[in-house]
Structure formats: C-alpha cells, structure tokens
Specification:
13 helices, Rossmann fold, 285 residues, 7-stranded parallel beta sheet
Length: 285
C-alpha cells in the first residue's frame, strides 16, 4: 500500500493521477473530502483528517509500505514532518519518498530550504529507506501571473536577472509515481528540472513566442512584492520565507543547472516552458 500526503495540491495531485493511471490504488490522507473527490472517483482510498493528528496519521499508515511525504510550507512544517516520519517508523513503513527542494543544502540560509534539509536529515537517521524528490521553481507559478500576462502583456516577479531551471509539476508528479511504484530508488536524491536554465527575461521570450504577442518581464521591487505576498499567503512567516527564497534566486545564491532525471527515470524529455504555455494557453491568452 502507498500512502500519499499533499495529494489534493498541484504536485501531489499529479503524483496521485500518475499512480492511478498505472492501475494502482493509493491511499490519500486529505483534510477536505470535496478536494479529494476526483481521486476517490479514480479509485484512491481516502482518509479524511489532518496530518497533525497523530491518531489519524496512525490510521492512515496501517498496512502502508511506502509513504509520499509532501506537506505545505509553513512554520511548523519541520515538526510535522518529523512526527509523520516517527509514526511511519512505528507503523512499519519501509520507504519514505519526500518532496524536498534543490535548494535544500547543508549551508542553506533561507528558511524553506533549511527546513527541507533538516527534514531530509531526520528521514536519513530514521533507518527507513528514503528517496528525496528535489525540484526547483515550478512552471505552474506562472499561473499566478496569468491575469497580468493576459491583460497587461507582462508579469512581475522579484527575481531580478536571476536564473532557474524551472520544472513542470506534471514531471515532478510522474517522477514521484515512478519512485513509489518502482524499485531501485532507495538512498537516492533526484533533482528535477525542465530542459533549460532560463532567466525571467528569457521566460518572457518563450511566452511571446507561443502567444504571438510581446510579453515583458518587469522585475518587481522585493519590498513591494513582499507586501503583496502578505495579503495572499496564510501568514507572515510564509510570506517572508517565500520572499527570501525568491531573493536567493535573484542573487544567484544557488547556481541552477538542468538535470537528466526525467529522461533517465521516465524515458522521455522533460516538459519545456513553451509546452507548458501551450498546454495552459487559455489562461494566458
């Protein structure tokens, strides 16, 4: 049995869909029955409850061999992930697949990568088999700029001239499903990217090419962008953490590189930004 957390979100949802497409029937721990309805209709077993409730987590872990650990970024995320890992060990889970980040390194200074690194270390020390899934900037983040792309022919992010090897969540979910359904992945960390390292001016060029009209990238003032984040994210810690992470991209604190993980594990090329734009063209045009 495979248990998924985070399966009603973008990346976890892609992992769940990929497993269902393989004919597997994973178990899903979800807080919202309505959001999990499509997965239930596809054959997934749904356990309704919060990942912070140890009793619910124990129920969800019963008979589970592999756990996909994906929790939303937050101030308590590390403690929550550590609790789930400890409960998984008690329940006899054999393998944990964690959604982490390419920025999670021993010398990370931003809060989100620091948290991921500490969580990775806790999993490594658990004695369980583990695999780390480590993407970078999500192409799906551009959907948050769909309105300004459509109406103003621009998008604005506080990335300066920074570069990233952005990945599509469909690729990330497909890699996670391959790891969960397959074998030979224990003890491995998989950095997942698209095929290109791009700055955001180059990303705007890709939008212009596909949409057939000039789209511009306007670097946002970090303080102004932070004030916007504080209005749309659930708490100040999360807004500050995301702002710091974006600032590291702008400064080039972590040198981006494209990987061949998708090609090696899935036997196909990763989704390029131009393909992502074509697939979501209704949102941008």
């Amino acid at each position: 049995m495979i248990l998924l957390t985070g399966a009603t979100g973008k990346t976890g949802g892609e992992a769940a869909k990929a497993l269902l497409a393989r004919g597997l029937k994973p178990r899903v721990l979800a807080r919202n029955a309505d959001k999990a309805a499509a997965l239930a209709a596809g054959g997934a077993e749904i356990i309704i409850g919060d990942v912070t409730d140890a009793g619910i987590v124990r129920k969800a872990l019963a008979g589970v061999e592999k756990l996909f650990l994906l929790l939303p970024n937050g101030e308590q995320q590390l403690a929550q992930e550590q609790q789930v890992v400890d409960l998984a060990r008690e329940a006899g889970v054999r393998h944990i697949v964690k959604m982490s980040s390419m920025e999670s390194l021993p010398d990370a200074t931003a809060p989100i990568p620091q948290m991921h690194w500490a969580s990775e270390q806790h999993i490594r020390a658990s004695g369980l088999d583990w695999t780390m899934i480590r993407p970078n900037f999500f192409m799906q983040n551009f959907l948050g700029s769909a309105r300004t792309i459509k109406e103003q022919k621009l998008f604005s992010l506080p990335m300066g001239d920074g570069k990233t090897a952005m990945a599509d969540t469909r690729d990330i979910g497909a890699v996670a499903a391959e790891v969960l359904a397959g074998s030979g992945h224990a003890g491995k960390s998989y950095d997942i990217t698209g095929p290109e390292v791009l700055d955001f001016h180059q990303a705007a060029e890709r939008f212009s090419e596909v949409l057939g009209t000039q789209i511009n990238y306007v670097p946002a003032d970090p303080e102004v962008y932070l004030s916007i984040l504080k209005r749309v994210l659930p708490n100040e810690w999360h807004a500050n953490a995301v702002s710091t992470l974006f600032g590291e991209i702008a400064l080039g604190a972590v040198l981006p590189h494209a990987t061949d993980t998708v090609r090696q594990l899935l036997g196909r090329e990763p989704i390029a930004l131009t393909q992502f734009i074509r697939d979501h063209i209704a949102a941008f045009r």
